[in-house]
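Run log, item B.
One chain of 118 residues. Sequence copied directly from the ordering sheet:
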Amino acid sequence: LAALVIFDLQYFVWHWTHHRVRFLYRTIHSVHHRYHSPFTWVTQYLHPWELITVGFLTTTNTWFFNCHCLTIWSYMLLSITISVEAHIGFDFPFLLHRIFPIYGGSPKHDMHHQKPDR
């Protein structure tokens, strides 16, 4: 759980920076925003640098805590589930944002792709 919280903070800072620094958005993060109506494969539709960076952050967080291999597997599964759920493009009643209202989920992320600040 700690690795997931840390990754969420890391990704928030990374994502926020790439939306605020015009050069980073235009050359790297805009690739992900080419789809204005996300679907599950958009989760991995990234600039190579973004894919490497996010993959590195996701993978190494569990190393710092010296997690058991089943904990790493569960963490990866949950990370992928959250990412896919955010890009699914549907608002099903059983999705995470219905259970945890503080989490925006698919509807909020769809709006983000339609109006990505830049």
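Observations after the first pass:
- Residues 33 and 60 are 26 Å apart (CA to CA).
- The radius of gyration is 14 Å.
Flagged for discussion on Thursday.
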